[in-house]
């Protein structure tokens, strides 16, 4: 039992060290990195595509942006984003339920990443394991959809507790699925008292401007600007 705890601790420590090095080298280049977490189908890629529209402007000629897509299998999300003109790269874990720092190191060495960029990393759709690993990010953002139910902050507290904000997606479906927003908000406030709740409709883009405003303010604060 204690051997397995020691091995787990060593894995986390090794990962943390490598993640710190990644973050230091990205920060030195003025790159702001967001680790996007959430369950399968919560709306992570839809959010990224809506942020990309706003950051890049027409033809993505605005602020530099790159995306790393993490999936157990397939490059569906990467292809979708590339078709929109987004600089997107795929990590296929082949079964691992989370991204880790060595995976990010490996893909960064192959990416064309401009200084001063935004780097959005979509983690594996999973409300448990990705919460346990840092991967070089400046902040974690959790995406939860109303369709998953109002009780998620109570049942999966760690992912919410580690996230700087919670984007609530599929608000257009709230009535159909009987979403109890007050209950969700109370659970979020209990697990992550400082994390704002940012509701969006990923299909229309409603609410995404507020997400981007919050990200810009966080970037300015964390970069000391
Ligand atoms: N009605 C509604 N559908 C949405 C919204 N956001 C996303 N969807 C739909 O939900 C489905 C999943 O969205 P994705 O953005 O692919 O979700 P994801 O979290 O990236 O999924 P994985 O990468 O598979 O974990 C798609 O069919 C989207 O069109 C929303 O706000 N409202
Ligand atoms: Mg996705």
How would you summarize the topology of this molecule?
Layout: H1 2-28, E1 32-38, H2 44-56, E2 65-71, H3 76-83, E3 87-92, H4 101-108, E4 118-122, E5 139-145, H5 152-155, H6 157-161, E6 165-169, H7 174-177, H8 181-191, E7 197-199, H9 208-222
Parallel strand pairs: 1-4, 1-5, 2-3, 2-4, 5-6, 6-7
CATH class: Alpha Beta
Give the strand order, joined by hyphens, for the main sheet: 3-2-4-1-5-6-7
Structural class computed from helices and strand pairing: alpha/beta
CATH topology: Rossmann fold
The overall strand count is 7
The CATH architecture assignment turns out to be 3-Layer(aba) Sandwich
Would you kindly provide a brief summary of this structure?
The protein is α/β, with parallel strands linked by helices and 225 residues long. The protein has one domain: Rossmann fold (3-Layer(aba) Sandwich). The chain has helices at 2-28, 44-56, 76-83, 101-108, 152-155, 157-161, 174-177, 181-191, 208-222, and strands at 32-38, 65-71, 87-92, 118-122, 139-145, 165-169, 197-199.
Could you name the key traits of this structure?
42% helix, binds guanosine-5'-triphosphate, Rossmann fold, single chain, alpha/beta, 9 helices, globular, binds magnesium ion, 225 residues, 7-stranded parallel beta sheet
Can you offer a commentary on this structure?
There is one protein chain. This protein has 225 residues and is an alpha/beta fold. The chain has one domain (2-222): Rossmann fold (3-Layer(aba) Sandwich). Helices cover 42% and strands 18% of the residues. It is built from nine helices and seven strands; from the N terminus they run H-E-H-E-H-E-H-E-E-H-H-E-H-H-E-H. Strands 3-2-4-1-5-6-7 form a seven-stranded parallel beta sheet, sandwiched between helices. Helix 1 packs parallel to helix 4 and helix 2 (44-56) crosses helix 9 (208-222). The longest helix has 27 residues, at 2-28. It is globular. It binds guanosine-5'-triphosphate (GTP) and magnesium ion. The site of magnesium ion (MG) has 4 residues, from helix 2.
């Amino acid at each position: 039992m204690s051997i397995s705890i020691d091995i787990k601790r060593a894995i986390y420590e090794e990962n943390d060290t490598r993640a710190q090095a990644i973050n230091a080298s990205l920060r030195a280049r003025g790159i702001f990195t967001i680790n996007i977490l959430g369950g399968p189908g919560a709306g992570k890629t839809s959010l990224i595509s809506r942020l990309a529209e706003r950051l890049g402007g027409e033809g993505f000629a605005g602020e530099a942006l790159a995306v790393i897509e993490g999936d157990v299998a397939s490059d569906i999300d990467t292809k979708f984003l590339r078709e929109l003109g987004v600089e997107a790269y795929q990590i296929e874990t082949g079964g691992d339920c989370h991204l880790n720092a060595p995976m990010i190191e490996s893909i960064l060495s192959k990416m064309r990443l401009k200084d001063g960029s935004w780097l959005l990393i979509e983690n594996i759709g999973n409300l448990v394991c990705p919460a346990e690993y840092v991967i070089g990010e400046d902040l974690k953002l959790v995406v939860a959809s109303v369709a998953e139910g109002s009780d998620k902050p109570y049942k999966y507290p760690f992912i919410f507790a580690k996230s700087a904000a919670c984007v609530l997606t599929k608000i257009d479906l709230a009535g159909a699925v009987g979403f109890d927003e007050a209950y969700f908000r109370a659970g979020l406030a209990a697990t992550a008292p400082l994390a704002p709740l940012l509701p969006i409709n990923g299909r229309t883009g409603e609410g995404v401007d507020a997400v981007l405003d919050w990200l810009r303010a966080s970037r300015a604060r964390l970069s000391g600007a």
